[in-house]
User: What shape does this take?
Amino acid sequence: MQIHPTAIVSQRAKLADDIRVGPYTIIGDNVVVGQGTKIHAYCVLEGNTTIGAGCEIFTGAVVGSRPQDLKYKDEKSFLEIGDNNIIREYSTFNPGTGDGGKTIAGNNNLFMAYSHIAHDCIVGNNCIIANNGTLAGHVTIEDKAVVGGLVAIHQFVRVGTLSIIGGCSKVVRDIPPYSTCDGHPASVYGLNLIGLRRNGISKDSIEQLNHAFKIFFNTGLTPRHALEKIEKEIKPNNEVSYLVNFIKNSQRGIAHSCRKSTEK
Assistant: This one.
């Protein structure tokens, strides 16, 4: 264990024996840090925070500080961060609210500088939150999603797997999986073809997803009728079924298409 002499580390913190802690970093009583994690200078780790193995936390990050939620009344809540995450400079992570509430980040994520993960958020695995990406409370980011720089995401929004949101977007509705979205508010432009191909999604599945997107976003049908048409016309596969179920379970509604309807 390498702890810089200027760091302030609670004797009650549970730290793996091979972590590194940089100058002037502060680690609180109830913090747990896993094997091989590196914590750079001037970081603050506090609250009921667990950080997994192989993470790297850069200068000035504040991880586990009190939620920015007026409803929070000092209940015991938690922040859980998995393995192999990179948390860049001055990013902030808040725990959940309410007794037992949790904010959770999975594995292999990149949180670029000044990103903010608010209370009760869930971030999956292999996600990228670019510089100044801001998640309000109760946001869910599914696996392999990319959130562009300066994006602001409204509370309770879901961002679907393998989607990508362009920089400076304002996200007020759910972002469908496999989509490319952009704008103010964010609108759907089409499939995230590059992401789908990079992740080994078959050509047939991509063609079926493209057909489903055209039906849902470009025909002018109501969501219910569009889903009925998709289920009638498209042979189900894993990706199309996931898309349909995501839309059916949306609470905030799905982001609109950037295009005007072309069919009836």
Observations:
- The CA atoms of residues 109 and 202 lie 25 Å apart.
- The longest strand covers residues 186-191.
